């Protein structure tokens, strides 16, 4: 049974929040993509121990990429698309919706705009408890490192139809393949 190492995932997210890992395609608008947020979060989850699931790229039950595929031809839609990734979270059993108070390091927050998932972020720091709890998020597209959730919400002020989905990532989940796929890139050390 695969185990999710949320600290390793968060370490990856904080290390690369303001950088790009050259092993993966860069989906920033300046590099021909629409935004790099979900691609970045998928990388962090992978380094946290998530197994890739190969299959037909538009299938919502698969999640994969290939190293150094800067053409983006050899990856699933769920790897880098915020809405398909949200569907994958829902159907894969690797996450469940939760409340803000349930969030911990390595969990995810997604922003929706008019019921369409638009952005994906990872919890990389938490301080306080109860009503004084503050969750800090790291993400790409508008690259941010440990940005307080309340500040993220304020960036959306003035946009009607904005909501947030909180995802509790399961610390273990049933393996669908029985095989763990790894990107063997010796020069990358975390």
CATH superfamily: endopeptidase domain like (from Nostoc punctiforme)
Share in helix: 10-25%
Strand/helix succession: HHHHEEEEEHE
CATH topology: endopeptidase fold (from Nostoc punctiforme)
Termini separation: 23 Å
Cα gyration radius (Å)? 16 Å
Largest sheet properties: 6 strands, antiparallel
Beta-strand percent range: 15-25%
Compute the number of structural domains: 1
Largest beta sheet: what is the strand line-up?
1-6-2-3-4-5
Q: What is the CATH class?
A: Alpha Beta
**Low-confidence parts:** 178-190
The name of the CATH architecture is Alpha-Beta Complex
Sum up the overall morphology in one term.
globular
Q: Using DSSP, what is the number of strands?
A: 6
**Total of helices:** 5
Structure description:
- This protein is an alpha+beta fold and 190 residues long.
- The chain has one domain: Alpha-Beta Complex (endopeptidase fold (from Nostoc punctiforme)).
- It is built from 5 helices and 6 strands.
- It has a 6-stranded antiparallel beta sheet.
- Helix 1 crosses helix 2.
- It is globular and about 45 Å long.
- The C terminus is likely disordered.
Set out the fold topology.
Elements: H1 6-16, H2 37-47, H3 77-80, H4 82-92, E1 95-98, E2 108-113, E3 116-127, E4 134-139, E5 144-148, H5 149-155, E6 162-169
Antiparallel strand pairs: 1-6, 2-3, 2-6, 3-4, 4-5
